[in-house]
UniProtKB/TrEMBL annotation:
InterPro entries: IspD, IspD/TarI, IspD/TarI_cytidylyltransf_bact, ISPD_synthase_CS, Nucleotide-diphossugar_trans
Function: Catalyzes the formation of 4-diphosphocytidyl-2-C-methyl-D-erythritol from CTP and 2-C-methyl-D-erythritol 4-phosphate (MEP).
Annotated positions for site Transition state stabilizer: R26, K33
Pathway assigned in UniProt: Isoprenoid biosynthesis; isopentenyl diphosphate biosynthesis via DXP pathway; isopentenyl diphosphate from 1-deoxy-D-xylulose 5-phosphate: step 2/6
Record protein name field: 2-C-methyl-D-erythritol 4-phosphate cytidylyltransferase
Organism: Streptomyces uncialis
One Pfam family named in its UniProt record: IspD
Gene name per UniProt: ispD
UniProt-listed SUPFAM superfamilies: Nucleotide-diphospho-sugar transferases (SSF53448)
Entry similarity comment: Belongs to the IspD/TarI cytidylyltransferase family. IspD subfamily.
HAMAP family: IspD (MF_00108)
NCBIfam families linked: ispD (TIGR00453)
């Protein structure tokens, strides 16, 4: 068979958008969180590798702090990444949802499945990424990895911002067995996520994750098992844990 008569390869239809434009205020002073080192490598590079580790992911869009777009591009160019994957860098916005929207806007028409993954979750295993993609491909418009809770959760009447020491009255104790802590990557049919952003707006009216915006449109959202190592690096202790997990991986399997 000549080259010309070979069937065209299937279109590469899945992209990952990585919002990485946050400052990392809760982690403490320093460079933007995504650029801070984990095991000597920027946290963002770990997150990019985690997405590109899935053979289904053809494109990774990194949403960078606007002042660091060139630095992020240089980082991607100077670290070993799979050749089969394309990488774009776009400037982010003032909120996570705004940054996600800017990442969505950069997707080429061929993409029909989108993962949204926090740069702040650098250690998500590829099996979790693939489980999310598989569930979207199987027909779910929105898929979220999640874990049961270890702590009991109270709903409160939040204290006033100018009275940080005041006790907070408890309003309710939701049944823990019905609660889940959600992670990323969250996976979506592209049209579902774009519709949610168009409908709910860039501020998300308090939505703290993309799936929450999709829920507000009435589309179904389903959960698949998350992974303990997909935790979010938010506060300094999380970075200590991430360093320990990475050191264990490197000792066990040369990660
Ligand atoms: N304007 C923003 C805010 C957040 N994010 C990204 O959204 C993810 C989850 O946000 P979070 O962990 O809250 O990161 P930060 O906003 O950086 O943290 P903090 O709230 O402590 O400043 C991170 O990868 C972060 O870079 C973003 O792309 N654009
Ligand atoms: C999207 C998320 O990681 C799901 O748990 C989380 O809601 C992000 O919250 P953040 O305050 O922006 O870190």
């Amino acid at each position: 068979m000549s080259d010309d008569s070979r069937p065209a390869p299937p279109p590469a239809r899945t992209a990952a958008v990585i919002p990485a434009a946050g400052r990392g205020v809760r982690l403490g002073p320093g460079a933007p969180k995504a650029l801070r080192p984990l095991g000597g490598t920027p946290m963002l590079i770990h997150a990019v590798r985690a997405m590109a580790a899935s053979r289904a992911v053809a494109l990774v869009v990194v949403v960078a702090p606007p002042a660091e777009v060139a630095e992020v591009r240089a980082l991607l160019d100077s670290h070993a990444l799979p050749e089969r994957t394309e990488f774009l860098v776009v400037p982010g916005g003032g909120t996570r949802q705004e940054s996600v929207r800017l990442g969505l806007d950069a997707l080429p028409p061929r993409i029909d499945t989108v993962l949204v993954h926090d740069a702040a979750r650098p250690l998500v295993p590829v099996d979790t990424v693939d489980a999310v993609i598989d569930a979207v491909r199987a027909g779910a418009p929105a898929v979220v990895p999640a874990l049961p809770l270890a702590d009991t959760v109270k709903e409160v009447e939040p204290r006033a911002a100018d009275r940080p020491g005041d006790p907070e009255p408890v309003v309710a104790t939701p049944e823990r067995a019905r609660l889940r802590a959600v992670q990323t990557p969250q996976g979506f049919r592209r049209d579902t996520l774009v519709h949610a952003h168009d409908t709910v707006g860039v501020d998300g009216e308090g939505a703290t994750d993309c799936a929450g915006m999709v829920e507000r449109t009435g589309a179904p959202v389903v959960l698949v098992p998350g992974h303990e190592e997909a935790f979010k690096v938010t506060r300094p202790l999380d970075l200590v844990l991430a360093e320990a997990v990475l050191a264990r991986r490197r000792a066990n399997d040369g990660y």
